Structure formats: C-alpha cells, structure tokens
C-alpha cells in the first residue's frame, strides 16, 4: 500500500493478511489509492518455536524495530514512514546509531550494536530505556541533542488503540529533544579515541551528509553532542555486556 508522509509517497509492504488489514485501518487517513510506490518500509512476520513470533520492521534494508504485537509494529511503521518526509529548516546531521531513550535523556549506541538488539532490547527496557524507531539519530546542530520529530503520517488513533499491545513490547518515544548522556562504542582492534577531537572524527565520519555542503555542520553538531556525553566502550557485542556498559555510563 502507498502512504502519504508530508509531500512524499512511501510504499509499505507487510507479510500477512492480518497485518495488512490492521495497517489499512490504522493508516486509512494517509493511504493513497491507485498509486504504487516502491516498498520503502516493510514488516516481516517470523515464526517462533516457542512463544509468539516477531514482527521485523525495516526501513529500506535496515532492520530497525522488533515487535511482538501489530500495535507496536504499526507504531514503528508510522515513525519509519515519517522519516521519509523532508527535514525542516535548520535540521542537523543524521548519525547512524541505535537510539535508546529514558528519563528525558538519550544513549546512542554505535551501529554494530544493532546486531545484538534481540537480547539487548529487553535488557535496556528493564533498566528504563526504550528504543526509538529510527535508523539514525537526528542531531540538533547547536545543542547536540537528539531530536524525535512528530509523526508526519495521519493515523486513525482509535483504530490503533484497539490493537492489543504485547507486554514484551516497548513504547514509542514522546517527540521532543533529548540530551545525549552517553555514546557507547564497541572495542575494536585499534586504540580507543581519547580526545574529543578524535571521538568527533570517529562518530562524524558515519554522518550521512558529511561529504555534502553541510559537512562542517555535522562535525560541529557531533562535537556539541559529545562535549556533554560520556564516551563508553563495551568490550564485546554481547547484549549483557552492552547493557552493563549503558548502565555504568549513565549511573548517577
């Protein structure tokens, strides 16, 4: 199906008839009939040997959210489709990262951390953090805060509220600005960056717009973000070790 987000038309593909029916009800105000857009957002239902299966939510080819209920999956779909809307004036860089939010703060985990999300997500939730439905962190170019935008997709909220929520699912974050409490890296083969300039170079190098005209803005935004954030290094991608690293970096 094709969904309108701002001035963009985004294709949504789901893998089961039941999820398709739910999506048509929830997204009814934004559906565009008679138009076939490329499937930019996809939800794939998986089977489970025990317990409930997972609904895997993708933005293009990037797996962003794992949900256990159609309600949580469609909340993620709204955010992922919204991310195709053009950014507003003064928007900052987009830094690839896993974004965890809690108590009005953000923790950014380096992109490889996404490979550990199956085990890491429930551990982070137990510690009071929920994962945002984003493929990157939108960084304010002045403050370095993470920005979670209002959805750009019209939704039938009553239809969404009628869908059950699985107790193992997190909740989508409240739109707003979140100061970054920590950046969590994973130990590599080389020496860890010890100065702010070296850390800025490591993180800013992954910014999607670093090579564009806004490259200097990306560097200054990352510098602002890291100036107030703890740099934490996890020894491995083990979910338990990563969760412990987040807890230690944000304690107090």
Describe the protein's architecture and organization.
The protein is of the alpha+beta class and 252 residues long. Helices cover 29% and strands 25% of the residues. The chain contains seven helices and 14 strands. The strands form four sheets. Strands 1-2-3-4-5 form a five-stranded mixed beta sheet. A five-stranded mixed beta sheet has the order 9-7-8-13-14, sandwiched between helices. The chain has a two-stranded antiparallel ribbon with strand order 6-10. A hairpin with a 2-residue loop joins strand 7 and strand 8. The model has no long low-confidence stretch (mean pLDDT 89).
Portion of residues in beta strands equals 25-35%
Radius of gyration: 18 Å
| SSE order | EEHEEEHEEEHEEEHEEHHEH
Provide mean pLDDT, rounded.
89
Largest sheet: 5 strands, mixed
Number of strands: 14
Outline: globular
> What helical percentage do the residues reach?
25-40%
**H/I helix tally:** 7
- What structural category arises from helix and sheet content? alpha+beta
Distance between the termini: 47 Å
Low-confidence stretches: none
Strand order of the largest sheet: 1-2-3-4-5
